[in-house]
């Protein structure tokens, strides 16, 4: 991978570098949000996916709410969320999410979900209802939804778009060659098509996607994937370092140094993205509220 740094350990495996240290959780804001999530019986992707930024984000009273339960029907090679057979559907969940967002006083709310491939609409109704409940309880809060691919059900996508999210996010995650390893039940072209269709359904609403690097892609593959995403009309891109959540998951093959993320951001802006969030600890919802501001004024950064 031209120009990239591999940090080798004595046994030949990449060693985690110093720049991947994150703020440890435990601040008063973190503890308050943790109590609220438990009190309302909610899930967050911050906890379920073992996000390294949980200390920083929860300390600032921001979180990504995860709806449709905490058991996923897919078995992605990068994800720490439990895989299995989800039980039932919680129709009261949208109301509880909206109440949590109101109590936190969030200016920008992010809502994501596990995959629920056993449901006819993949859970699109619950996404749409959550958007509507948040609008009713928190009219001043902007809403970002990070959705699954709904197995290519474009009517399910339309149900979400018709509910009026401020940002529609769907992650491509990795380069097409690594899909069998990282996203075995997903399809690269289907994810690109979702982004294209979402932009076509509501051209005024920013779309967003993200990729991870360090799982074995080449530099050129990463750039081609970024260009493919840009070609859908996508407005916002996030690029972060892949971190192996457990020994059972796909291994990290390379740690990108911070200067390489700077280069990837520059390439992304040249491709036409209005905003690129690129860094070792960047995740889909990292600095999400700031991204709304940067894309709502017509500028690019």
Description:
An eight-stranded mixed beta sheet has the order 1-2-5-6-7-8-9-10, with helices on both faces. Helices cover 37% and strands 14% of the residues. The protein has 301 residues and is α/β, with parallel strands linked by helices. The protein has helices spanning 28-39, 45-48, 54-59, 93-104, 124-137, 154-162, 179-182, 188-201, 219-230, 258-271, 288-296; strands at 43-44, 64-67, 71-72, 82-83, 108-113, 142-146, 167-169, 207-213, 236-241, 275-278. Helix 5 packs parallel to helix 6, helix 6 (154-162) packs parallel to helix 8 (188-201) and helix 9 (219-230) runs parallel beside helix 10 (258-271). The two termini are 26 Å apart. Strand 5, helix 5 and strand 6 (142-146) form a beta-alpha-beta unit. Mean pLDDT is 85; it is low at 1-11 and 46-50. It has a single domain, classed as TIM Barrel. The radius of gyration is 18 Å and the shape is globular. Pathway: Protein modification; protein lipoylation via endogenous pathway; protein N(6)-(lipoyl)lysine from octanoyl-[acyl-carrier-protein]: step 2/2. [4Fe-4S] cluster 2 binds at residues 72, 76, 79. Residues 58-274 form the Radical SAM core domain. Its EC number is 2.8.1.8. It is found in: Cytoplasm.
């Amino acid at each position: 991978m031209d120009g990239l740094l591999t940090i080798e350990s004595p046994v030949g495996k990449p060693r985690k570098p110093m720049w991947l240290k994150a703020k440890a959780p435990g601040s008063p804001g973190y503890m308050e949000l943790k109590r609220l999530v438990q009190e309302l019986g909610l899930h967050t992707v911050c906890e379920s996916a073992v996000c390294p930024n949980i200390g920083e984000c929860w300390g600032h009273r921001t979180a990504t709410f995860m709806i449709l339960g905490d058991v996923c029907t897919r078995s992605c090679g990068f994800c720490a969320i439990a895989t299995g057979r989800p039980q039932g559907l919680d129709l009261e969940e949208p109301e509880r999410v909206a109440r949590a967002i109101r109590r936190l006083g969030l200016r920008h709310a992010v809502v994501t979900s596990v995959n629920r491939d056993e449901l006819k609409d993949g859970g699109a109704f619950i996404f749409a209802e959550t958007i509507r409940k948040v609008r009713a309880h928190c009219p001043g809060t902007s809403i970002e939804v990070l959705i699954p691919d709904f197995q290519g059900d474009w009517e399910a996508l339309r149900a979400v778009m018709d509910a009026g999210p401020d940002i529609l996010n769907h992650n491509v995650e990795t380069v097409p060659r690594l899909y069998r390893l990282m996203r075995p039940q997903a399809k690269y072209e289907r994810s690109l098509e979702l982004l294209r269709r979402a932009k076509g359904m509501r051209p005024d609403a920013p779309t967003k996607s993200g990729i991870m690097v360090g799982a074995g892609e080449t530099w050129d593959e990463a750039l081609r994937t970024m260009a493919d995403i840009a070609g859908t009309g996508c407005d916002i891109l996030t690029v972060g370092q892949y971190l192996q959540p457990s020994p059972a998951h796909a291994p990290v093959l390379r740690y990108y140094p911070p200067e390489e993320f700077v280069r990837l951001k520059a390439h992304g802006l040249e491709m036409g993205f209005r905003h690129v969030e690129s860094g070792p600890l960047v995740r889909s919802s990292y600095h999400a509220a700031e991204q709304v501001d940067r894309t709502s004024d017509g500028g690019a950064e």
